[in-house]
Each structure stands twice: as C-alpha cells, then as structure tokens.
Amino acid sequence: WRPASAESTPFTVRVLTYNIHHGEGMDGVFDFARLARIIESAEPDLVALQELDDKTTRSHGVDELSELGRLTHLVPRFGRAIDFEGGAYGVGVLSRVPVISSETHQLPGAEHRESRVALTITVAPGNGIPQFPFTTAHLDDGDDVEPRRAQAEALATMGLTNGERP
C-alpha cells in the first residue's frame, strides 16, 4: 500500500484473513493455542477473523477474540453480527499496531438469512506512516448470489473517501 502523498515512502503491511469456524478445528477440538500458533506463524500486522464466538454456549463461554489477542499479543476488536447462544457471533480484527477507532457496519442481506457486518478499524502505525483503515467482513454464503453482491457493493462504497479508495 502506498499513501496518497508522492513524498511518502511505501511500506509493507502483512495481512492474514482466517475463518476460525467459531474456534472449532476440523478435528472437533476447540484449541485456541493451536489457532494462535497458526496466526503467529504468518507474522501478520493485521488479522481479519471470521466466524468468531463471544461467550456463547457453543464455545464454552470463551471470549474467543480476547483469548486469541492474549495468546498472540495482538490488539483485539470485535464486530457483533448477531446475538447467539447467550453471547454473540461475528467478525474481528487482531492488530500489531495501535488501533485508534473501530466501527461495525451492518451489511445488506436476504430475509431469513444470518445478519452480516463489516468491522472497520483505523490504525496508527507511527514512525511517519499515516493512519489508515482496515476492514473485515464475512459475506453471505447462500446459494443466492444477490445478497453477496449487495454486500460487496456496500463494502466497496464504504472505502470511498473524497472519490478515492484509501
């Protein structure tokens, strides 16, 4: 990513996106240390997480994002999509750099389908690197492509600032 200013020096942001399937591995085991090792192995600056449980019965009351933040030493931010089994379900971000704001945006969707959200954080890397936004979302995976298309269009317009994409 290169900042808009011609005088700015390009810098690298290492990003990982990871659908953690509410913390349950393919073997049916909830193993947050294993998830943390996978995340750490990529050495990301920003991690976009999908299918996070927050204190649900299904995930044994664990605040999954906070636990992953603790294990990886990254800053967690959660975007609630729905209330679920005594807690919440949604998306999240883990950040190596300071987070100065976060906002959850409702995405359009189909009737009788799970509500979807996008979570946008603004980070401030410092050292002359400008603040910038980072967004994660988990789009509808149903057979009807129209909700997914509407969600993608909503995401595309969220990033517009003065007619330019950040």
Largest sheet: 4 strands, mixed
* Series of H and E elements: EHEHEEEEEH
Poorly predicted tracts of residues: 160-166
What percent of the residues sit in helical stretches (DSSP H or I)?
10-25%
Largest sheet strand order: 1-2-4-3
Overall morphology: globular
Average residue-wise pLDDT: 88
Rounded radius of gyration (Å): 17 Å
Beta-strand residue percentage:
25-35%
Number of helices: 3
Structural class: alpha+beta
Distance between the terminal alpha carbons, to the nearest Å? 9 Å
Indicate the multimeric state. single chain
Give the strand tally.
7
Present the secondary structure layout:
Elements lengths: L14 E5 L12 H10 L4 E9 L9 H9 L2 E10 L2 E9 L3 E8 L10 E7 L8 E6 L7 H14 L8
Summarize the structure.
The chain is of the alpha+beta class and 166 residues long. It has helices spanning 32-41, 64-72, 145-158, and strands at residues 15-19, 46-54, 75-84, 87-95, 99-106, 117-123, 132-137.
Supply database-style keywords:
single chain; 166 residues; alpha+beta; 4-stranded mixed β-sheet; 3-stranded antiparallel β-sheet; globular; disordered C terminus
Q: Can you characterise this structure?
A:
This protein has 3 helices and 7 strands. It has 166 residues and is an alpha+beta fold. Strands 1-2-4-3 form a 4-stranded mixed β-sheet. Strand 6 and strand 7 form a beta hairpin.
